[in-house]
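Ticket #4471: complex job returned nothing on first submit. Input attached below:
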Amino acid sequence: MSASLSKGINAFKEVIDAPIASYFSSCVHCGLCADACLFYNETGEAKYTPIHKLEPLRRVWKQEYTLLGKLGKLLGLSKPVTDAELTEWEPLVYDSCTMCGRCSMVCPVGNDITYMIRKMREGMSASGHAPEDMIAATTRAVNIGSPMGVKWPAVLAQIKHVQAETGIEVPVEKAGADYLVLMSSMEIINFPEYLSALCRIFKQTGVSWTLAQDAFEATNSGIQIGASDLAREIVSRIVVAAERLKVKCVISPECGHAFTALRWEGPNLVGKPYSFDVKHILEVLDELHKAGKLKTKGKDSRPLTYHDPCQIARRGGVVEQPRRLLGEVAADFREMPDAGVMNWCCGGGGGVSANTRAEPLRLQAFKVKKRQLEATGANTLVTACANCRIVLEEGLEHYHMNIPVVGLTEIIAEHLVEGE
Amino acid sequence: MTINNDSEFKSALGNLPRAGQRQVAARFAENVLALSKDARVKNAIGTAKRTDITEDELTAAFASAKKASVDSFTQCGTECDWGSQAGHFVARAALACLQPVRPGDSPAWDAAMHARMARTCEGIASGRGTDNAEATVQYRILDKFLSGE
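Support reply: We reran it on our side without changes. The output follows.
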């Protein structure tokens, strides 16, 4: 579908639902969201105030759905949103917002500004004001099944590699398995150690699991770019595979937005409740540990800290599980200031890391993570999102900090009691 | 002793001292070096192979290999170029040769696995498929190393 200003304005009108109307009408212009924003905090530039990023959407709401706004529009006192304005706003909506949700946490009237940005991206995308890199990623996700162009033969290659490395068979298309495992393209391409760790953990715990040939990819770039129809298509593939294989639970991988898309937005996108559970891998590992199935030995003596991925902790509620798991394998775990639900974003979520032109701003915003890390004195950084992991690696390299970044699932696998 | 499978391979690597692990790891990385265009990776592998390396040189080579590894990650949302990704895994193999070793670490095994991933990526990029003889080649490299060649 070709994009145009009129399509974008229509999309704005369509996304203004009851929550968004009430959020705009109840905003008290206090500016607290500014202090919560990574990009405002590190640049001091007023344009990065989260509620300001929504100004075109606010104008459409006022002109179309309020009495004074309608009168103003009729009398020519209120100017319509223009293509030039949307061009100006594009970097504010895509480059300087990771949809991390910190602004939503501090809003004194309870406005979910992140939800509003997500909805605003629908209109930006429909009007042709989405970053080229993100459009290309979403097109690949729809046409190929993966935003990074990963096809099943590449997954098979990784399966073969992991089977040789671990000596454990990776189950594929196994009907009736308890768990359907998803991966992100990032894990398939950059981190074969994730699948390797899962194989070892699931062997030790006796878990029944499978991969699906037509639904291996968890990343949902439709959510990031703001295209609900595409997001629905991506979620639908997973739902179809899970129902076909009759699994009890789908495991979202170490990927932030995949979890948000599948766990929280998925049922609304496909218009029905799931017939299966959706859990993040850390939730599954924590459950296995609590049930006494996941057994570890020894502790990592390095001072280490944990970066909470925004979509998993703040937007997803998975906060205590990683800490319980780390408690089992880390002798010197150190919390960052603002850890947990108020953790600072790595700077690359919400499609920002896929957006090349945003890189200088992203690296500038990384200074807050640098300060958080320095405050702990930790020399190892653990996280549970493959995108965070690379963004963190780049930030650390940029600021000459020699701190290895490790996936939590991998560190658990390193400490498994095996061979008993 | 002739190594014929991964079990024997892993066991033999595990018996090597740190310097031996580093030197044989560098040979595994060197065998896939043609898949990398990064001069930093070549230099790092060359450094790792030396028997007279100092701690300062190790640290500097590690930093250089780390930078090459981070620079060559395929970014989230970017279309994967499997040829370039092969280069990334060569950089990670080089990094494994040089990383500080903790108890339980097996840098030579890690380097071997990254080198195999590099070869797999090359197979995907070329369309030849992912069957390759890298593991067998690594067995022979280790045989030669253990026999002092």
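Residues 50 and 72 of chain B are 25 Å apart (CA to CA). Closing as resolved unless it happens again.
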